[in-house]
Structures are given as structure tokens and as C-alpha cells.
Amino acid sequence: MSTWRSRPGGVLRGVVRVPGDKSISHRSIMFAALADGTSTIRGFLEGEDTRATAAAFAAMGVRIESPEPGVRVVHGVGIDGLRAPGQDIDCGNAGTGMRLLAGVLAGQPFGSRLIGDASLSRRPMRRVTEPLGLMGARIDTASGAMPPLQVHGGRALQGIHYSTPMASAQVKSAVLLAGLFAEGETEVTEPQPTRDYTESMLQAFGWPIEYGPGWARLSGGHRLQARDIDVPADFSSAAFFLVAASICPGSDLTLRQVGLHPRRSGLLRALRLMGADIEVGASTDAGFGEVADVRVRYAPLRGIDVPQDVVPDMIDEFPSLFAAASVASGTTRVRGAEELRVKESDRIAGMASALRSVGAHVVEAPDGADIHGGALEGGEVDSLGDHRLAMSMVVAGQVASAPVKIRDCANVATSFPGFLAVAEQCGMRVDVLAD
Asked: Residue 262: its pLDDT value, please?
């Protein structure tokens, strides 16, 4: 348990860089481990989630060196070189890690068991076990299709054409990863396009794959070739500072080398529709979407109806958007975001409850909420052990009329180690309290 206190009056200024992209860090380890040769990953996120993924592959015989923080040297064992782990694979809090690993492990000759922490053990896994079962995998779950996952080895997988019932990059990726080990062609189509990190990284590692917005197709029987990866700064981590600088009067903050993949950075579009003053500098493309410096200055925000076509592109950023909406003029309406109900916590209910605790007027809907902007008060909230709720309420506390006490913040380390240091560096006011 860790309790923080966010104190009002913060003014964000200067130039900061947030840690590396979590999604790319997870996938970099996976593909480098399955590749032939040695890959060096720079900018690797030193979070508990991504370290759990690295530990999983180390337990399956992959030598992974860490010569300095943020760097991993991965000695790949090839597509057929993983070995049976000697114990359960602990994914910690990482839903991405567990779901993608399920795809990789479904095609192995050995069995394995995936476990997670209390939060991950409440997250639904049928969305991946069902399509993997259609491919011939056998994965047993706890009641309600929850973890742990018992993956049976030695199953001959067959490629399938699968239409995902929801827009989920994790589901798409799990099926494609199983397709690496399957006979024939595997194709995935989506109701709405999601981030294509898995597709672009498979291509970068030399696997023949065809893909476009909302679809991807590959066949088994090929090999991955080692390559070096430079991981950009994580947009989801940058999001808290984009919002904080937008709502804290006098702020002028630059975030360095942020990944701006269009399927990941929908919050930029939403904030700009709300009136945010955000400037994107000259960009480069390392193969995973644009990377650029982002400058954000304070500007009065107004409520909007969040366009539904942008919802899948900002699904991880909704807690921070809720914080912005709570102090915007007018009402912000969110719909089509039912995926928020099954993240690390029920993020609709969690953010609604937390914001109400500090005086906001929030009305839940099954797939979103109406957030009526106004003045925030001080108070005490429970983050429910959800890292994004905790950091979003730190942002909200910067513009409240009195301090906001936030309970259960320890899981921030899963995605953003050093959050408090970056917050202090740019001028936010946050204290750590004795539990």
C-alpha cells in the first residue's frame, strides 16, 4: 500500500521525458526472444509489467542481459527454441503480457501455467482463450474464464480467419502470435482499427505479414531475425502531463520524443477538440509510428462529445481525460468505451467514484459517462490499486481547492516507475504519506 497527497497550485514547466512505451517494450522482448540472433533494446520500460515479461522468457531459456537501466540485450533462441519453464510464469499485473504470452505458449510442445496478481486474476481471458481454442489450443481457466491459465503443450495449431467481437489489440495480437506456430494462414479482422504494434514489429523482425487498418494476415513456417529497437517515450505515460499542463494555469511543458502512433494517441485529438494548446514538433519514424516532442500550454477547456471513432485510440487514456473533463466548462460525454469496465479496475466506476469524492458531478453510463465540469474540492479517494486511476487523481488534485489524498498507489510502478520524480521535476506538488 502507498498513499499519496496531491496538493493544488502546481505549475508545469520545463522539458521532461517519460519512460519507454510499455506496449513496444513487451513486444520487443517477445520478438527478440523468438528471433535468430542477438537484439539490443534501448529505452526499455523498467516497469514491473515489462520486467515480468522479460522474466517469463528468461524462465524459458532466453538469456537476457541488462548492461544499464533501460537497455536489454536479448540472445534469441529462435521460433522453436523455447524450453519448458520450471515453475509458474508470473505476469504480475500485466494483461498485455498474459494475453500475448497465451498466444505464444499455445503453440509450444510443453505445457505452462500463467498466473497474475489479484487485479489481473479478475480480468477476463475468454476473449483470447476462445479464438486460441478455435485454432486447436487447449487452455484451462479458473471460474468465469479468469486466470490462472493452464496452457497444454503439444497441440497442433491451425490457422483461422477470426473476426474479433471487440476492438482489442491484445486479442488480435494473441491470435497472430499463435499463428506463427500454426499450419496455414491466420487472419484477424476488427470492428474498428486498433494499434498495429504487433504487425509492424513482426514485419521489422522479418516475418512475412500483410496488414492494414482493421485487418492482418500471416502464415506460419517462417523465422524472425534479430534487430535493434529504440523504444519511444510512452504516450500513455505522457498523457497525465499533457492533461496536467492543459488544466494548470501558467503551465508550459515540453515532453521529449513521445510515440505518436495514430492508433495510440487519440487523446491528442480529444484534448484539441476541448480547446487544448498542444504543439507537435518535427517527427521521425522508427517503424512504430511517429516520434516527436510535444509542447503543451495551459488553455481553458470545454466539454465535448468524444467522437466514438477515437475511443479505441485512447482507451488507456480515459482516466486522464475524465480528470480534464471534470474541470472543463460544460459537459463531456463518453460512449462506446465499455472496454474500460474490464481493465485493471472498472475504470468508469472507479474514476466516477473518485471524482465524486472531490466534488465532481459524474453520471455513469454502461459504456461511458457524462462528466459535468466544475470546481474540484479536496478529499480522499481510493485508486483501487489501478495505476492509471492513481496518476489521474494526482492530476486532478493539482487544480482542486484543497489537497487530495489518494490511497493504494503502489501499482503505479507497473507502468511508470519514477512518476513522482518526473512530476516533481516539472512542478507538480505531490507528497508520499506514511501508510
From this structure: 87
